[in-house]
Amino acid sequence: MVRYSKLAFRQTVFEYGTDLCWTPMILAKEFNRNNFARDSDFTLSTHGTQPPTIVQFGASLPLELARASSLAAPFCSGVDLNCGCPQSWACAETLGAALMEKRELVRDMVVETRERLRQDGWDVGKEKDMNSPKGRSVSVKIRVHKDLRKTMDFITTVLGPDQDRHIDFLTIHPRTKSTPSSTPINIEALEILTSTFGDRVPILVSGDVFTLNALPFTSPLFPPTFTSSSTETEQPPPTPLVNIPKLAGLMSARAILANPALYAGFDACPWEAVETFMNKVARAPLPFKLVQHHLSEMCSPGLGPNKRALLTRSERSAMMSCQNMVDLIDFLDEKGNISRRTPPV
Ligand SMILES: Cc1cc2nc3c(=O)[nH]c(=O)nc-3n(C[C@H](O)[C@H](O)[C@H](O)COP(=O)(O)O)c2cc1C
Fold this sequence. Notes:
This protein is α/β, with parallel strands linked by helices. The chain folds into 2 domains: 7-269, TIM Barrel (Alpha-Beta Barrel), CATH 3.20.20.70; 275-341, no CATH class. It is 39% helix and 10% strand. The protein has 13 helices and 8 strands. Strands 1, 2, 3, 4, 5, 6, 7 and 8 form an 8-stranded parallel β-sheet that branches. Flavin mononucleotide is lined by residues 1-2, 4, 24-25, 56, 82, 84-85, 141, 173, 181, 206-209, 252-255.
C-alpha cells in the first residue's frame, strides 16, 4: 500500500500469519536511477525477520522493470507489476491501470524481467523452484474491464503458453478503473476469471477481504476461522454466497491496515497487535505522522462486521494530538494498561 506497507508494518502482519507481504508501489524508473530512492522506498531488515516480500513496481518499459527487478531480487521473494493503480498521474505516465489497455506491453515487461532474473542466476521455474532459496517470482496485479472479454484477452496474452507461462501468479482486483472502493467487488467477474484461468495460474483476489469469517464468497481453501475478540454473535449472511473454488490466495489492503492480525483469524484489531507494531517501529522507524496514522487505523472500528474499536473517538482524538513519539508511547502505555485490565464487551 502506497504510504503504508513499510518494513515495520510488513513485519507486524507477518507475525500475525500473513504469508506474503507487498511493498508499496515503487516507481521502477526512480528505483533504477537513484540510490536514495532505493533506500527510502524499500527498507530491509538487517536484524531479525525479513518477511517474505514482493516488491511491487510501477513501470511502463520492459527494460525499466527488468533492471529494477534485478536490483531488488537479492532482497525479496519476487517482483510484481502494478496494473491497477487508477490515479490520474499514474495513468498519464502509462503506469498502473493504464496498462490494462496494453496487454502486449505487459507481456513484454514480464517476459524481459523473467529472462533478466534467469540471466542473473535466480531460479524462475515457478512451481518447480518454489522451495529453492534462489527462487524468485514474477507476478502481475490487475483490475477488470467493463467488458470482461477484454480482461480475458489481457490475461491470455500475459500468461502465454501453458507449458511455460510468463508469470508465477496473478492478483485480481475485481473492480474497474472507475469503480469506487465503496462498491462491492464484482464476484461474478471473479468467478468467471478464476474458473477460466484458475487451473493455469494461481489467482489471488484483492478487494473486500475484511475478515476471514466474513468473506464475500466461499472457497474451499479459506473456510471461516474465528478468533473473536468480542462476545457478539455473528449474524448469518442474508443470501447464499457464490463459491469460488479455484482461488489460491487472499490479499487485503484497507482491512489489514485496520487489523494487522486479520490472517491470524482476529475479527477486530487486538491490543497486542498495536504493541507488536510499536515494537517493530522501535527497530524499523517510520515517520511520526505515519505511525500516528497507522495507530488511528488500528484503534478505530475495522471494516468487518465486528465494529469494536480499541479507543473511543475522543481517545483517538487525544492520541492524534500527541506531538512526539515519547508522548505517543506514554499515551499508549496508559491505554494499554487499561485495555488489558478491562476486556472488551
Ligand atoms: C492506502 C492504500 C494504498 C494502496 N496502494 C496500493 C499499491 O501500492 N499497489 C497496489 O497494487 N494497490 C494498492 N492499493 C489497492 C489495494 O491493493 C486493493 O486492490 C484495494 O484497496 C482493494 O482492496 P481492499 O478492499 O482490501 O482495500 C492501495 C489501497 C489503499 C487503500
